[in-house]
Structures are given as C-alpha cells and as structure tokens.
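Supplementary Methods, section 5.1.

A reviewer requested that the exact input to the structure prediction be made available. We therefore reproduce it here, unchanged from the version used in the analyses.
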Amino acid sequence: MTETVETEAGTARVTWHHAPEPRLVLAVGHGAGGGIEARDLQALAAALPAHGVSVALVEQPWRVAGRKVAPAPKTLDTGWRGLWPALTRPGLPVISGGRSAGARVACRTATGLGAHAVLALSFPLHPPGKPEKSRAGELLGAGVPTLVVQGGHDPFGRPEEFPDGGFELVGVDYGDHSFAVPKRAPVTREAALETVTDAVTRWATSLG
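The structure derived from this sequence is encoded token-by-token as follows.
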C-alpha cells in the first residue's frame, strides 16, 4: 500500500509492507543518491513482516518531486517530521531508520519525535577521504537504542573507525556503502544482504 503525505517540505510518499500480526513499525528513508529501490531496503521490506515488523519505505519530498539533488539537512528533517504522524497512525512503536543521509535524519530527529529506536544503515561517519569531518555527534546523540549496519569497506566510514558509544554495530564483510561486495570477495552479494537482514531482524525482534 502506498500513500502520499503532505509535509512542510513538500509531498512525501510511504510504501507500506504490513506484517500479518504487527508489533512494531520500521520506517526507513533512502539516501541522497538513490531511492527506496535500494537492495537493502527492499530486502528488509521482504524479510521483516514475517517477524511482526511492518516496514514503511519512505520517499522524501525531493525524491517524489523528481529532483536529483537532495536538499539541506534541515529540509530533510522537516520532511521526516512531517511524515511522522502517518508512521505512528497504526498505534505501534516506530523504529526510525534510514540508509546513509536517511540514517543521519533518523539520528537527528529520534528524540524529538519519540522514536522507539534508530536503525542506521551505512551511516556516513565522514565524507570519503576526510575522517576529520566526523558526524559521530549525530549518531551518539540519537538518545534511543541504535543499531548501525556498516560495510567493512565503506569509504564513508569503516566499522573500526566508529567511536565507542551507546549503539550496537554490525559489520558486513567486504561491503561498500551499498553493501555490494567485489566479485573476488569470498562472500556473495546475496550473503552480504543476508547479513544485513539477519542483523536487523534479530535486533528489531529483541526490542522491548
């Protein structure tokens, strides 16, 4: 089921994958370079409903409008806040999540929105090649239980670069920012995606 939602940043879109017996909602936003067709987001939407987690794939207004460049972080946050009433309408706890830029949005807004937890897929800890420009403060400031799933070869931050903090981190061996792995890697792309879905399923179903 797909619905449009009006926000102060424009018209957003939510595609629902409902669990037969839901107890949680996982809302996940896309990154700045792609949409909800990302393979990890689609894999989560396929896997989690069987475990009692409804998945809401969220398209930010800029993406719905067909623009190719994401707006400033403040505008992304405005769009996400505007969507929140639609995400909480089922009356269930909501995990606020996203990949890349969407993960940053989830972290920045979690406390203010009353998110149950945060899922950060491929959190962009720093711009590629610029580790001194750390965004760790956004992650550490989420204020709720947080799971980071990070590719082992992600140029935006490898697992070993992350600081200690109140979050769980799962590495995806050989994965890049999209969790793709080189052809020569000893794991397949399918196995890498399975690592993502297994980690998120285990974590989400463990939340009280």
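Residues 15 and 163 are 34 Å apart (CA to CA). These observations are discussed further in the main text.
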